[in-house]
Amino acid sequence: MSRADVCVVACADAWRGDGAVLASPTGLIPRLGARLAQLTFAPALLLTDGEATLTYDDEPEGWLPYRAVFGVVAAGTRHVMMGASQLDRFGNQNISCVGGWRRPARQLLGVRGAPGNTVNHTTSYWVPRHEPRVFVERVDMVSGVGHDRGAVEIRVVVTNLAVLDFATPDRSMRLRSVHPGVSVADVRAATGFPLVVPAEVPVSRRPTGDELALLRERLDPDGLREREIR
């Protein structure tokens, strides 16, 4: 079992209990997580090939043309797992620029679909490198809105070190679990703002034998997931 395996199952668990919603994972590890969830505890989860076909285990299952996706978004029947160049304590996300937005030091993707995602349906985040320049006191530009700005639900943030959520009275970020071999002090040191840390912080769930077999033999036999953990 590797750190990447733990991250995959943590991403899979983000969709646990969602039912028949459209999962939109960004990145290899979130996509492996969504496919693992669909093949195990969440058979009703909907996945696409990235174009217009709904799939089950990468086999065609239905038709979802692009024009229909906006209806799914507006209805709230979607759970996207996006990336983030910056995140703050309330889940405000930046994927647009680093530095002042009028003259940024670095231009990034732009806001893309982040505003619509965060105000219409459940959103989670995958951060392959947990460090202070990502987890910041204040994002340089708000792309996806956080709980202090009207987000519907920022469910979890999965990183290479931990799983974080917003199960606090003011819906600020909380440490839910640390991955095997990671300490609470490691996560605190890698976060640029004070986290809410419970008295007892469990270790993130390890994959079951069946989940490991699916990952190694069917979903990612070439081990490409290991490259996403930096």
Automatic annotation (TrEMBL):
Assigned keywords, A-Z: Transferase
The UniProt entry, under InterPro entries, shows:
CoA_trans_fam_I, NagB/RpiA_transferase-like
Transmembrane segment boundaries: none
> So which domain of life are we looking at?
Bacteria
This entry's Gene Ontology molecular function terms read: CoA-transferase activity
Q: Does the keyword Transferase apply?
A: yes
The reply to whether Transferase figures as a keyword in the UniProt entry is: yes
Family designation: Belongs to the 3-oxoacid CoA-transferase subunit B family.
Name of the protein this chain belongs to: Acyl CoA:acetate/3-ketoacid CoA transferase, beta subunit
